[in-house]
Amino acid sequence: MGAPKASTGRGHVVDLGMPAFPRSSARAAADSQLRFNLRKATHTIRGKRANVVAELPDWLELRAAGKAIKDHTLRNLDRYLIQLERAVTEAGGHVHWAADADEANRIVTDLVKATGETSVVKVKSMATQEIGLNEALHEAGITAYETDLAELIVQLGDDRPSHILVPAIHRNRAEIREIFLDHMGEWGRPAPDGLGDDPRALAEAARLHLRERFLTTKVAISGANFMVAETGTLVVLESEGNGRMCLTLPETLISVVGIEKVVPTWRDLEVFLQLLPRSSTGERMNPYTSTWTGVTPGDGPREFHLVLLDNGRTDVLADEVGRQALRCIRCSACLNVCPVYERAGGHAYGSVYPGPIGAILTPQLRGMDTPLDASLPYASSLCGACYDVCPVAIDIPTVLVHLRARAPHEPAERAVMRAASWLLARANRFGAVQRLASRLRRLIPRRAPGPGPLAAWTDTRDIPPIPAEPFRDWWDRTEGGAR
Fold it and tell me: In what residue span(s) does the LUD domain sit (predicted)?
């Protein structure tokens, strides 16, 4: 499903054939229907968020508390993960540690095979998308059925998610109707005849289609928004009830969760249960908040497995500037205010994590060895809107600049920087070049010759006219005698 994928040497899954962000975003920006869909959806969510956040007089204090809890947990991650493992085990669950995507996929595939089943239902999980779990299961002869409405749309349309919270944000309801009519029957119960594009009718078609899966599938795979170390409890927040069905009806539940999702206590969790709904869907309280702790005889799954996923996270943790990306609670608030995301869409980022948070998280998880990953830190205007709305105060612009310094640079770019360093090191050199530029100003073009990086730079920026007299010379001539 979607674009072909492969695993790199570091165990990270990357999309094959994805160009660097400037090329893919240029194509997306030329799609007027995509821009309309994105603008309508992001502005709606952005407005709802602003209204419910404004209701809380202590929002900034909550934000600071969320940041402090996350920072404390990351500094003591080893201790809290061991505490979590002990609590899950004592509650009857099984804990598995996965260093990378390949190991996580192997663990999950073996667990499903051990049940004898050939199909699973899934709760929306970015961690499983990150590691390409659906593709790994498919190769092993196991079919994964997405049950989140937006993920279902993406799966039926052989598409890829383009938003953290609303994976099918790039589709309008007319497009969704066509996808249901054309492909729903290939995956199970077909869409009803005469299906219109009314949202209620589309939701009812999805409900009837999914109910069959919920009642017949014996293995479920989930992620988790949070894990509470003191009790071994996992928490999933969702808006449709599909998560509750997946977490309670199957006989076996397998949860794949990034190691950074742990919080120390239930009291800490309470802070995020206020921050996340307001920042993500613009709601005061999440519609469905499901929690489970191990297994309970006669209630819910008979067997529970927790796969703790690293996949580059400890490398991120080692970077004192970049590690703040691990605070992210996947609310998508930064995407909804980002002027770049609004015009380029999520697919241009070539990652399950699009938008501003993806621009700093993906290059750290995957490395910057491909043109796509090396370009992501530049997929921003550095306007700072993402930092303003982040509920855990991730300073995304600062991390972007930090990653730009680490990104590989072209030989021509390095040569230009060395020349600029030599020129700016001495005032007399800089002054001489200014005077030369003033004398030759009529010969200097407003656009650099190209194609090439300099031509691309001048295509999007206005070069100010060169004055007839440099400022330094003017100052010496008019003010020099007063000193």
Answer: 83-307
